[in-house]
Amino acid sequence: MSWIWVGMLGLSLLCGSLNGAGDLGRAAMEGAGKAVSLCVSLTGSLCLWSGFAAVLERAGLQAALARLLSPVLGRLYPSARRDPLTMGALSGNVTANLLGLGSAATPLGIEAVRRMQRLAGSDTATDEMCRLVVMNTASIQLLPSTVAALRASLGSASPFDILPAVWVTSVLSVSAGLLAAWGLQDCCEKNEKRRTQNEKLRCPCGTK
Amino acid sequence: MTAYLIPALLLAVSGLALGRGANVYDALLEGGRRGLELVKTILPALVMLLTAVELLRASGAMEALTCFLRPAAAWLGLPPETLPLVLIRPLSGSAALALGAELMAAHGPDSLIGRTAAIMLGSTETTFYTISVYFAAAGVKKTRYAIPAALIADLTGFAAAALTARLL
Engineered SS bond to B153: which of A129, A138, A182, B18, CB 3.0-4.6 Å? Predict the structure, then answer.
């Protein structure tokens, strides 16, 4: 993220000075302000859905969902198989995503990542965290209701006729994301292995 | 139907929990408090992200990128009109929705461009927002390959949207 942040700022400054764009300072302040108003509008739904998730857990529904989805999720997230609470949060996250309840999916997904982080005990993303984030960045919803409502309001003849295309596209992008994650995982591991080997070579007798 | 989905879901789950003898209201409040703490941890990440996004838009960097990427878009089969949407989609959900609405209004919601925009909006997510929020909340600092993998998924989604808009 650090590189991306610096890159975005550098590009903006470069283009802004070339274009003679007006007040970039004000734009920056506006962006920061927008983030706060987004957070404020997010707070209500985050609180409501976190409360809902807590009730879901007490009703025993999370465990039932987890049992239903564990054959698939257990394969993608092996550590969740050993930790029922992670599995519960994960299956809730997937279900909410499928139903198109993005605001409900977020607290559950975060709960799952937090538990994974606690198990891993470091500030480096594990392979499972990367897969979970990729799954959440590539939307898997069955009913894109916001877009359909937008099309209806603009006078589309049948606002839901994009459904098959959306499903095919979602499946393609999620599979591409997961495949990429696996490919990059190998790449990353090789790199990390080489780095540790190099360190060993530098101090062969084990003293630093 | 979707208009009643959320209240019906809330009622059904609360009723079930009540039937099983759980203290529903207590659980709601406890969860709500957790939600509030969540907001506190993700706010700084959002401020940084949206500041950079606003700078990109105000400086005209977005337009410059659109011009620059036109040949690549043609190669992927993306209609050039949808390029600004492709660039803003991973960064800002509300800006992407506004851009999509503009495209649909200008070209008609049932036109090829309108349909492509709608499919793009329906089958992708706000990637950088999701990554910042999830990893900020969990306290993860090294994201390893999460960003490239997510961007590959987005790119595939955009190309597939252009394709399925024609075929399906």
Answer: A138
The gap from C-alpha B97 to its chain's centroid, in whole angstroms, comes to: 9
Question: Region B60-77: what's the mean pLDDT?
Answer: 85
Distance CA(A148)–CA(B118), nearest Å, equals 8
pLDDT of residue A206: 43
B33: helix, coil or strand?
A: helix
Query: One-letter amino acid identity for A108?
Result: L
Q: Which 109-168 residues of chain A touch chain B by CB within 8 A?
A: 109-110, 113-114, 116-117, 123-125, 129-130, 132-134, 136-139, 141, 143-148, 150-151, 154-157, 159, 162, 164-168
Q: Is residue A12 part of a domain?
A: no
Domain range enclosing A156? 146-208
- Interfacial B residues in 75-134 facing A (CB < 8 Å): 90, 94, 97, 100-101, 104-105, 108-110, 114-115, 118-119, 121-128, 130-134
Q: What is the mean pLDDT of residues B5-9?
A: 80
Residue A202: inside a domain: yes
Kindly state the DSSP code that residue A123 receives in the 8-state scheme: S
* Chain centroid to CA B21: 38
Domain end: A95, A126, A157, which one?
A: A126
Q: Do A48 and A103 fall within a single domain?
A: yes
Which ipTM was obtained for this model? 0.81
Q: Which residue has the tokens 């997230």?
A: A77
Is residue A20 in a domain?
no
**Any idea how long chain B is?**
168
Read off the tokens for A37.
């108003």
Same domain, A122 and A177: no
Written as six digits, the tokens of A186 are: 């190998």
The answer as to whether A194 is a domain residue is yes
> Side-chain half-sphere of A188: how many Cα atoms within 13 Å?
18
